[in-house]
Amino acid sequence: MDEATKKKIRQAVLQQMEICRQEIADLEQRAETVELDQPIGRLSRMDSMVNQGIVMSSLNKTKHRLARLEQALKRLDADDPEYGLCVECGEEIALKRLLALPESEVCIHCAE
Q1: Where are the alpha helices (DSSP H) in the chain?
Q2: What SS3 class is residue 90?
Q3: Which residues are in the Zinc finger DksA/TraR C4-type domain (predicted)?
Q4: pLDDT the model gives residue 41
Q5: What is the DSSP letter of 40?
C-alpha cells in the first residue's frame, strides 16, 4: 500500500473515530437510568426502559467500533504489512471498502 493511500485511509479513520466519540457522548447522556419513582404511567416507564436498552446496545456497538478503529490506526501507523489484506482469502481489501470501513479485516466477497 502506497503512502498516499495510507494517508487517505488514516484520515478516514480519524474522521470516523471523531464521529464515534460524538455518538458515544450523546448515547451516554441518553442512557441515564430510568427512575422508578417518576410520576409517569407504568407503560411510559416500560417504554423508557425499552428505549434505554436500545440506547445501551447502540452505545456498546459504538464503543466496540471505536476500539476497532483505534486498532486499525495503530496498524496503519506501525506500517503493518497485513493491514488492508483480507484475513480470509489474503487478497487486498478494496480501497473503497477501507475508506468506508477502515476497521475491515475481510474483503467484500468474504464478508458476504
Answers
A1: 3-30, 42-77, 95-100, 108-111
A2: coil
A3: 82-112
A4: 63
A5: S
CA proximity to 62, closest of 30, 98, 34, 25: 25
User: Which residue has 458476504 as its cell numbers?
Assistant: 112
| pLDDT digits 0-9 by tens, 59-96 | 999 999 999 999 999 999 999 999 999 999 999 999 99
| Alpha carbon distance 19, 100 (integer Å) | 13
In terms of C-beta density within 10 A (0-12 exposed, 13-18 middle, 19 or more buried), how is residue 9 classed?
buried
Distance CA 107, CA 62 (A): 22
CB 103 within 8 A of CB 72: yes
Cβ 13 vs Cβ 77: under 8 Å: no
Whether 37 has a pLDDT exceeding 60, the answer reads no
The answer, yes or no, to whether residue 39 has pLDDT greater than 70, is no
Q: Average pLDDT, whole number, for the chain?
A: 90
pLDDT band of residue 105 (cuts 50, 70, 90) is very high
